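> example.struct
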């Protein structure tokens, strides 16, 4: 399996794109503004979008993706998400007011897009690629994902904060190789991180102390205006983990 980082920022700006990751050439993990880095030829190959939660920075490009390539495909793009997230997408995004309902275009029998409900722990197997929803703790219903090739696993926490249930599962993954975890704020904004159910370096340090597996750790969701100070705080306080900043176009093979 190959995972290419299309966007991993907590905001936008020159060179900054919100969360989107391309698994092999046919699966998206979230669909933030990073999807705009794909070519038309790459977009038309996408068969599945796995969504962590309904916040705009993670779903913003689903409407544009479907609208752009739907007519070029012979089958619908499948949006995989929790029941709560799918209900939000139906009610507030693909509702004919904010965007057309592509589960009914060009017809209900032959749509450009369809939904599939995910449940925690319910693994989806796509030609030997195992994708398992994991618990996250955010201000709206959110899930992370374990991507398992059989030889190794990559775990993406999604947007989250303190979450003992997550670590109880992670510590059972024998083939864990990579962990992508967020730190949306620097420690000067710890109070905001707590209220918005994100992590900051001090909270992240407390969470990583619960990790009992060896893994390469990468930090996502950094705010463009304070990414450097946040990473400096992380590296000072968590040197034993050697956490690194997740970068656009980074490629993981596992």
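> example.seq
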């Amino acid at each position: 399996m190959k995972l290419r980082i299309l966007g991993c920022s907590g905001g936008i700006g020159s060179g900054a794109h919100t969360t989107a990751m391309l698994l092999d050439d046919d699966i998206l993990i979230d669909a933030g503004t990073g999807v705009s880095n794909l070519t038309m030829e790459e977009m038309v190959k996408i068969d599945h979008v796995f969504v962590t939660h309904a916040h705009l920075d993670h779903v913003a490009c689903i409407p544009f993706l479907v609208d752009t390539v739907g007519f070029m495909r012979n089958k619908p793009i499948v949006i995989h998400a929790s029941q709560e997230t799918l209900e939000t997408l139906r009610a507030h995004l693909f509702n004919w007011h904010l965007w057309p309902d592509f589960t009914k275009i060009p017809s209900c029998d032959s749509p450009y897009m369809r939904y599939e409900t995910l449940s925690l722990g319910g693994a989806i197997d796509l030609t030997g690629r195992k994708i398992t929803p994991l618990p996250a703790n955010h201000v709206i219903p959110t899930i992370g994902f374990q991507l398992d090739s059989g030889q190794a696993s990559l775990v993406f926490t999604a947007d989250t904060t303190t979450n003992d249930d997550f670590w109880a599962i992670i510590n059972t993954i024998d083939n864990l190789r990579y962990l992508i975890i967020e730190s949306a704020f620097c420690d000067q904004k710890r109070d905001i991180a707590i209220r918005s159910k994100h992590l900051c370096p001090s909270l992240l340090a407390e969470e990583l102390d619960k990790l009992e597996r060896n893994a390469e750790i990468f930090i996502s969701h950094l705010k463009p205006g304070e990414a450097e100070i946040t990473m400096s705080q992380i590296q000072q306080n968590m040197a034993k983990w050697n956490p690194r900043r997740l970068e656009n176009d980074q490629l993981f093979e596992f």
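> remarks
The CA atoms of residues 29 and 50 lie 5 Å apart.
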